[in-house]
Design goal:
The protein is globular and about 65 Å long. Helix 2 crosses helix 3 and helix 7 packs across helix 8. The protein has 373 residues and is an alpha/beta fold. Helices cover 24% and strands 28% of the residues. The chain has two domains: 58 residues, no CATH class; 250 residues, TIM Barrel, CATH 3.20.20. The structure holds iron/sulfur cluster. The site of iron/sulfur cluster has 12 residues, from loops.
Length: 373
């Protein structure tokens, strides 16, 4: 555990929120995410962290975090963005989805501000990330869309110092706000939770189409590097038909070079009655993704070097070997930061953001405590 000290920032109080409008009946409507919560003064939205106050919208979690940790970038998961490097990761509290299978529910469903023990201004976070030797800062653990104003300010402080920004998000955000949010990001792991409206509606009380629009937007209208993750839940979103439809959509609308991670569910929150995802389901999904023509398909939350590694789409050579989050092999040539690479065996282009060599952070997780001095 690394102990950092930070002043109690004045920004810890509620700050004005963006993306809202006043309604004729006196309420205000939040226009940050497709829920469009309509609130009377004193009420909070479904995410619990945005509230109507004094006739306007406020974000109540600015400058407060549920914790900081230095993770391997592969844990986000991002396999084609600065492989092997450490990422300074943090989240706040609350969420704008209601997933019954949430794997982070103690944070995302928290309505207790006592979860928000650590306080840090944007500059303090960026400085702590630099001191920890990180190349990037990740907005993760809960969905950063709901703390947009804080995330964007932290991202700006990071960019000033040469740090990259990584969003781990379900992508449930309206068009006007997503331009600001994703414009601040350099890489995105977007959670594509399933591929039917019924799944999104019944398990997340959300809509698939909004998430697909966000994926298309990030891929085609921003400079951010995009990867996707689908948590496979037995009997809920893992049929051959659904996986074939999902992977065909990714190939058609995002292209063959957007990495797709299939990860294993474990019983949690309101889905304790469903067993963990068996490895054979992940291998089946991996095969379906490859058969659909996707170049980079991965399994996650299980230990399998074969489906956790990156292969050349041209000659099939293993280019980036991974043992859990440890880089065991590196065959990416002539890469410079911000550039894609190529296969050292046959020269085929490899999509991603690579440096000349892999980072050496390994699989370590290093909690960092920013305490009030
Ligand atoms: S961001 Fe929060 S308050 Fe705003 S519409 Fe979404 S759930 Fe409601």
């Amino acid at each position: 555990m690394v102990i950092e000290h930070s002043e109690l920032a004045p920004s810890e109080a509620a700050v004005p929120g963006r993306y809202w409008q006043r309604l004729e009946d006196g309420r205000i409507q939040c226009d940050l995410c497709p829920r469009e919560c309509k609130l009377r003064d004193g009420q909070r939205g479904l995410c619990f962290v945005r509230a109507a106050q004094d006739g306007g919208m406020v974000l109540t979690t600015y400058g407060r975090s549920s914790g900081f940790c230095v993770d391997p970038i592969e844990k986000k998961p991002l396999n084609h963005f600065l492989p092997g490097t450490p990422v300074f990761s943090f989240g706040t509290a609350g969420c704008n989805l209601t997933c019954k299978f949430c794997q982070n529910w103690d944070i995302s469903k928290s309505r207790q501000m006592d979860r928000l023990m650590d306080a840090a201004s944007p500059d303090q976070i960026a400085e702590a990330a630099l001191r920890a030797g990180c190349r990037s800062v990740a907005y993760t653990y809960n969905d950063p869309v709901i703390f947009l104003e804080y995330a964007v300010d932290v991202a700006e402080a990071c960019r000033k110092r040469g740090l990259k920004n990584v969003a781990v998000t379900a992508g449930y955000i309206k068009p006007e706000a997503r331009a600001e949010f994703f414009g601040a990001m350099d890489a995105v792991n977007l959670d594509l939770k399933g591929f039917t409206e019924n799944f999104y509606h019944s398990l997340c009380t959300a809509h698939l189409v909004d998430v697909l629009e966000t994926a298309i937007y990030v891929k085609h209208e921003t400079d951010a590097w995009l990867e996707l993750t689908t948590l496979l839940i037995p009997g809920q979103n893992d049929s051959d038909e659904e996986l074939q439809a999902l992977t065909a959509w990714v190939k058609e609308h995002l292209g063959p070079n957007v990495p797709l991670h299939f990860s294993a569910f474990h019983p949690d929150f309101r889905m304790q009655d469903i067993p963990p995802t068996p490895p054979k389901t992940l291998f089946r999904a991996h095969r379906i993704g490859r058969e659909a023509g996707l170049n980079y398909v991965y399994t996650g939350n299980i230990h399998d070097e074969a489906t956790g590694s990156t292969y050349c789409p041209g000659c099939g050579e293993k280019l980036i070997g991974r043992d859990w989050y440890e880089i065991t092999q590196w065959g990416i040539g002539n890469a410079g930061l911000g550039q894609g690479g190529h296969c050292t065996a046959c020269g085929t282009a490899v999509a991603g953001v690579f440096e000349h060599a892999a980072g050496r952070w390994g699989r370590k997780r290093q909690p960092v405590r920013l305490t009030r001095s």
